[in-house]
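Q: what sequence does this backbone want?
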């Protein structure tokens, strides 16, 4: 059994090591404005190779294969869509991040859909009632756009690290005060299904065409504004001044570029420049007792925002017991004499940052002490 768990731990460790911490991945989903209704212009066709898209559907002319990374030359959503906020989002990020950072997007969107399409449980019943043209789009994602997002994201996680989730959706849910709660359901499922930490993966939600542009669904922006009350790590991206098309529903190409730039500018404020590692002692538990001479296995959980962990050191007070440079992070402390000990772990990263865990107190007592404490002897007379 121990060998089995070691193999699993080694596999997970190798899988994580294969990730490039400088490959930042973003999930982008929604309806038509996220899909992209803007005309692809000359300025949009020049794309830095550091900006990638994982193809969400198979395309011809040019040939693109689902699940493969390509330079994010538009269209990035499906084979015949247009410019969307995603395009300038990625361009703005790579222009402002270090040259060793690559940005990748997973771009799945369905024109006209309600947020209910991304409900992992009830999507099929919603899909059954939509018009055929929308069913055709849904079928390009295997009939389950949410499932396609998760499948692609799991594949992408082998290459890089998911840094954020972008949504632009709401026109079809205009007036629906439950929309923020429904979005939270989708967000929570993505966090769970992809093994993410909500505190490290913000959700950025864009406003629909606003009242300043005569937007048909502008009233929805007051509902979108409440999203941070439901999802703490969420942020609303203003559409003010983003020009729209004559239908008062979709942005112009210039409007999409400005909106995408705003998504990126917000994301840049949320990215850690070089945060310190996070570490905690998971075993033994605080106030655990052992019988002398004790063998105590110390296990630590450690991570780094940039996946740059170099080592985890184990201490008894100020005395170093040992260290590990790769996961799983554990140390076998043997022949421990009677006494009370304070155990900590210190995680270090490649930038020289160090974090010390909270201390865990353990006691080692003799068998006689255990017996005397549990069964005191009373001598009569």
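A:
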């Amino acid at each position: 059994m121990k060998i089995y768990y070691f193999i699993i731990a080694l596999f997970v460790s190798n899988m994580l090591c294969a990730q490039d911490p400088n490959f930042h991945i973003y999930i982008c989903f929604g309806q038509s404005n996220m899909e992209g209704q803007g005309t692809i212009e000359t300025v949009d066709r020049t794309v830095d190779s550091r900006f990638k898209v994982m193809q969400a559907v198979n395309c011809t002319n040019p040939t693109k294969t689902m699940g493969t990374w390509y330079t994010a030359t538009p269209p990035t959503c499906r084979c015949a869509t247009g410019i969307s906020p995603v395009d300038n989002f990625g361009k703005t990020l790579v222009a402002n991040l270090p040259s060793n950072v690559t940005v990748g997007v997973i771009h799945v969107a369905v024109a006209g859909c309600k947020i209910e399409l991304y409900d992992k449980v009830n999507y099929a019943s919603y899909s059954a009632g939509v018009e055929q043209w929308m069913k055709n789009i849904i079928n390009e994602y295997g009939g389950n756009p949410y499932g396609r997002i998760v499948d692609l994201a799991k594949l992408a996680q082998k290459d890089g690290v998911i840094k954020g989730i972008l949504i632009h959706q709401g026109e079809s849910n205009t007036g629906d005060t439950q929309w923020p709660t429904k979005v939270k359901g989708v967000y929570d499922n993505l966090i769970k299904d992809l093994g993410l930490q909500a505190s490290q993966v913000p959700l950025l939600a864009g406003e629909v065409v606003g009242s300043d542009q005569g937007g048909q669904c502008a009233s929805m922006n007051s509902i979108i504004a409440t999203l941070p009350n439901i999802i703490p790590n969420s942020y609303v991206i203003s559409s003010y001044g983003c020009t729209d098309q004559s239908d008062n529903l979709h942005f112009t190409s210039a409007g999409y570029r400005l909106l995408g730039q705003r998504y990126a500018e917000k994301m840049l404020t949320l990215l850690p420049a070089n945060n310190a590692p996070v570490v905690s002692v998971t075993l033994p538990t605080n106030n655990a007792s052992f019988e002398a001479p004790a063998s105590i296995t110390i296990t630590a959980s450690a991570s780094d925002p940039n996946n740059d962990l170099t080592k985890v050191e184990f201490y008894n007070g100020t005395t170093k017991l040992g260290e590990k440079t790769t996961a799983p992070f554990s140390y076998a402390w043997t022949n421990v004499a009677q006494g009370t000990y304070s155990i900590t772990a210190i995680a270090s990263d490649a930038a020289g940052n160090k974090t010390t865990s909270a201390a865990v107190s353990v006691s080692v007592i003799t068998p006689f002490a255990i017996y005397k404490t549990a069964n005191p002897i009373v001598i009569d007379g």
